[in-house]
Fold NAD-dependent succinate-semialdehyde dehydrogenase.
Amino acid sequence: MYPNTELFISGRWQAAAQGECIDVVNPATEQVIGTVAKAELADLDNALFAAKKGLAVWRDMCILERSNLMRRAATILREKVENASDVMSLEQGKPVAEASREVLSAADVIDWFAEEGRRTYGRVIPARAPTIQQLVVCEPVGVVAAFTPWNFPINQAVRKIASALAAGCSIIVKGPEETPASCALMVRAFEEAGIPEGVINLVFGIPAEISSYLISHPVVSKISFTGSTPVGKELAALAGRHMKRITMELGGHAPVIIFDDADIEDAVDILVTSKFRNAGQICISPTRFLLQSGIADQFIQRFVEETKKIRVGANNDSDMGPLINERRVEAIERLVTDAVECGATLQTGGHRIEGAGYFFEPTVLSGVPVNAQIMNEEPFGPVAPMMQFTDYDDAIREANRLNYGLAAYAFTGSGTTENKLARDIESGMLSINHYGLGIPETPFGGIKDSGFGTEGGADALQSYLITKFITRTINN
């Protein structure tokens, strides 16, 4: 059964102050399966008050105690994996096996930050006089406002929550209205672990109203947002007007470069799985496939063969589920139609699957020209557009052409080429000859229009800390 979702404020699950709710739709059936409470300004004020009180408690708690509590939450979340996976599959559409991996990955994120929080070291700076002591210490930045998307309802929220808590901050999370229940189940794991009141607060509602109110509020010191580039720019500008620290993980259009000396079978196996995971609704999804002319035909043939094996549906045997809503289906239809009109060849797929649900066929396009919309606009769906290149410089020119810079991929048998790619590719993350992004201990973030800052690894924790310099005389 799918649970209705309430707000979590000051350690209590509660209805919105005015009792309003938003319907939650199962994208596989297009049927309403539940509701989520819609927060109003009174609820946000309550959350702000709670977060301020929670901060006072949490930042003064022994760091070992904070770490132990977070690890208990990770253990509880692992115990909830079956229930959380079923709920996530219902509201988001991804297969249960994918949802299960997301839940378990989230628990790993909590564990990692629980330990990293114990290493928020300061330092001593040698002074110029023997009677002076110079110290650098790290302190929590304060109350955090976090905004999370629907495509990874647990993993996107948990990165923000775990980083904030490890640094000693309290947090208000604006969760995804499309996929609220699995996000709430993750927060419930912290509640059951004993998180003090007000340290974590979870609200849902109209995104623009909540973001504008929280970002401009004086209680909030730090903003973390995951979502589209246009919205991210607006929120970053608002945060800048109020001198708020930001982390922005925005859109991407990841190039995938396949060189003539690559292991084609290995590349196809990796890329078919990663391209169509979550129906392509992933910001780091391999998107623009750049194929060197010597292997282009072979790669396309093998990629199409494996793509045709993907089972689309909403049962436990499915490899790919539906898109999140009707708008995504219409967007993918528009991009595919435009690519074909521009001269691309439709190798497989390209159509909505008839019947209930927002299902779209896994699609491969070859010979896609750079003026096609799909080569310039993030598709965020199950479409793999492919084009050829001649030499290394051509590939780099196309890979760096757009003002996105989140993730990039490459496959080559040359160590020399690997070294050149590491220098020349303009992106926050680059994975060569495997799919190695998104694990807890590594940075996760982009450059250019793909964002600012990172949400993984030790660097993520630093953005939730302020550096304080203390210089004092040493008295006898």
